[in-house]
Amino acid sequence: MFWDKKCKGCNSKIKSEWAFCPSCGVPLRETKKVSSEFDKEPIEIGRMPEMNIPNLMFKPFMKDKGISITITADNNAPPRIEVVTSGDQRKHHHHEAKPVRLPKITEEPEMKVEQEQNKDVITLNLPDVKSLNDIDIKQLDQSIEIKAFAGDKAYFKLIPIPSNATVNNQFKDGVLKIEIQK
């Protein structure tokens, strides 16, 4: 009662074995000043001869690396896609999505395959398609996806290919030629 210890910060009862007051967090014991030698004379830690510390200790061990993709879409507007990479190359990419075309008719185009030594030449007839800009060719792991648009009509074809094949294409007068080198 008479000998009860009280905190200097908040005046609440404390026990002698406690290092901090549980009410206000004030340190209850005197702490020794570890850095007293450094306070006397300012010395850079890396330049002290008895403390030869490698420079790696003062750099972060792992760099922040990653990618962040944000897709924002409204009901009436086309979706906005933002790609942000972090790490060695901190670039901000902004990609506008292509407008989606919804054709009334979808057809599979006529296809001819000619096999030569180490390549296949595939010919697709795409009448009414005006330019290569109206054709979307996506090379997937083991196939090629071809979408072509001509007014209200669309052409769609999925062609299987080997996974390590090289694909070249050429479009002229409504005919798409695809060369697949194995």
Task: Give your account of this protein's structure.
Among the domains are: 66-96, no CATH class; 105-181, Sandwich (Immunoglobulin-like), CATH 2.60.40.790. The radius of gyration is 35 Å and the shape is elongated. 3% of the residues lie in helices and 41% in strands. It has one helix spanning 36-40, and strands at 5-6, 13-14, 66-72, 80-86, 92-96, 105-107, 110-115, 119-125, 135-139, 143-150, 153-160, 166-172, 175-181. It contains one helix and 13 strands. The strands form four sheets. The protein has a four-stranded mixed β-sheet with strand order 6-11-10-9, with no helix packed on it. The protein has 182 residues and is mainly β. A hairpin with a 7-residue loop joins strand 3 and strand 4. The N and C termini lie far apart (93 Å). The longest helix is centred in the N-terminal third of the chain and has 5 residues, at 36-40. 7% of the residues are buried.
Tell me the name of the CATH class of the domain at 105-181.
Mainly Beta
> Strand pairing plus helix content: what structural class?
mainly beta
Helix content: under 10%
Mean pLDDT rating:
77
What is the first-to-last residue Cα distance? 93 Å
Give the number of helices. Answer: 1
What's the shape?
A: elongated
User: Any guess at the CATH architecture of the domain at 105-181?
Assistant: Sandwich
Arrangement of strands in the largest sheet: 6-11-10-9
